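Hey team,

Filing this mostly as a record. A colleague (T.K.) asked me to run one chain through the structure pipeline before their review meeting, and I want the input and output archived in the tracker in case anyone asks later how it was produced. No errors, nothing strange. Just documentation.

Input sequence:
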Amino acid sequence: MTALASPRVRPLLVAVVLLVLGALLGVLWASVIPYAELTVTDTTAGMPPSESALLFSGPAIFALMAFAFGAVCGLAVWFVLRPARGVSGLLFAVGLALVASGIAIQVGGAVADARAGDIDPHTPGTYQLVDSLWLTGAGWNALSAPWLLLICAPGVAALVYFVCAAGSSDNAWLPKGQSSDGIDGADGFPEPAPDMPQPPADWSYPGARA
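Output structure:
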């Protein structure tokens, strides 16, 4: 238990847990999304508009799940990694959310493709189809933006971290043992200033009136 509570071990444990949760998030996404059905005949291949709409539900569901996962990342780093609060904790939460989102996208896509199976355009039948979470065709104005789903979790992680900092005392944002004025002290309080030397009781400054 002492080793698990070590300041050096705890960030590693938090990172491993969140990365594993990212992989599980991808598996969960592939298990709950609806799959569109593609009908292949001897002459054509297509799907009705109702099935085409299902292709957009996959990325939308992942975005919602990524928002929730980003909140978990922000809260986990804020409460578990108390000594790392501050800019380092914020960057740690955002970085973990970013990497875990990438793992979720990759794992979710692999599991979804395995469940849907391969599509043979030359063999008539009904096939399941799912849109890729790597939005290769997505754009942001005139720029290609396949990273749109990748920034959902990091953005929420940063927002939640800032909310936790804003809702806490001044010293809660700082690493443990450091006060808001930069002076180290027990429990985050500054050390008392030493007593200032006082002049003798019968001393007066030159030129003072008697």
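Quick notes for T.K.: The beta strands are 36-40, 45-46, 125-129, 139-140, 143-144. The chain has four helices and five strands.
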